[in-house]
Amino acid sequence: MNGLPFIKMHGLGNDFVVLDGRAQTISFDQAQAKRVADRHTGIGCDQLIVIEAARDSQADAFMRIRNADGHEVAACGNAARCIADILMQEKGSDHAIIETNAGLLDAEARDGGLVAVDMGLVRHDWRDIPLSKAVDTLHMGIEHGPLKDPVGVNIGNPHAVFFVDDAEAIPLDVVGPVIEHHEMFPEFANVGAAQVIDSETIRLRVWERGSGLTQACGTGACAALVAAHRRGLTGRVADVRLDGGTLRIDWLPDNHVMMTGAVATSFTGTLYPSLLE
Q1: Confidence (pLDDT) at 276
Q2: Low-confidence ranges of the chain (pLDDT < 50)
Q3: Based on the domain organization, do 131 and 98 belong to the same domain?
Q4: What's the total number of domains in the chain?
């Protein structure tokens, strides 16, 4: 029985099953993707990634993303760095362009095995996040348990960033799912508990929509820096410390956000059709 080759990769512990659908069509429905992502009976991952042929002539490849619950999403920063690493190695180049449902992402290799990705434009109008009604996205007024008064940011997907005194003390596994499904978020939300250490350092924990608690969330780190700067708590550049490691986030003058961090390949394997039945 023939199977599908895959690569297991991660960016700071945010882990992915990556399949190459450029030479053959690979498609998953929600239930199949969920089975692959299951950590007990599948391969296990936060996101399932399929590399596809680019639609845009400027791009090297298209990246399709499904969260662990099987739902397709438009953006994943850590996955973008992993896919960029694959593409750059294939090309023998230090630059790659990834096409996503959130737009084109420019990536480049940095010293020390790091990969930097331009995550695109920051959006914080209530319509762009999107929210179910018009509110001030700098003070959204949502409150649940120890979390209150978030900043709304869209970095290819919706984020609610809550500033807290101690990120470790927040029961994010309890309050995160409630806020994720709050009526204010018609497309649900990623929930960040951000502790500002100093003007250049943020400690962040993230409940990722459709995946749960994650070791690292790239778009979440971008959202935390943007939210912190909008609140006057940091500059436009900061190290964001996540459970799995640190990302360097730079909110550029052109309103794009640059994210830099490490990528790693864990193992390769074969996904057998029986898992998809």
Answers
A1: 85
A2: 1
A3: no
A4: 2
Please pick, among 45, 82, 217, 222, the residue that the annotation labels catalytic. 217
Asked if 129 and 102 sit in the same domain, the reply is: no
217 catalytic per annotation: yes
- Within 8 A by CB and 6+ apart from 154, the residues are 122, 123, 124, 128, 129, 130
Tokens of 15: 């882990």
- Asked if residues 55 and 99 have their Cβ atoms less than 8 Å apart, the reply is yes
DSSP 2: -
Contact 251, 229 (CB under 8 A): yes
Q: Single out the catalytic residue among 45, 76, 82, 222.
A: 76
Identify the pLDDT of residue 274: 87
For residue 1, the model assigns a pLDDT of 46
- Planar angle of CA 171, 223, 193, nearest 5 degrees: 15
| Residues 168-206: b if buried by 16+ CB within 10 A, e if exposed | eebebeebbeebbebebbeebbbbbbbbbeeeeebbbbb
The boundaries of the domain holding residue 97 are: 4-111+262-276
- Residue 76 annotated among the catalytic residues of the structure: yes
Dihedral of CA atoms 42, 44, 46, 51 in degrees, nearest 10, equals -70
Clarify whether residues 67 and 20 are in a common domain. Answer: yes
Q: Are 3 and 270 in contact (CB under 8 A)?
A: yes
Cα(222)–Cα(105) distance, integer angstroms: 14
- Cα dihedral 161, 261, 242, 196 sign: negative
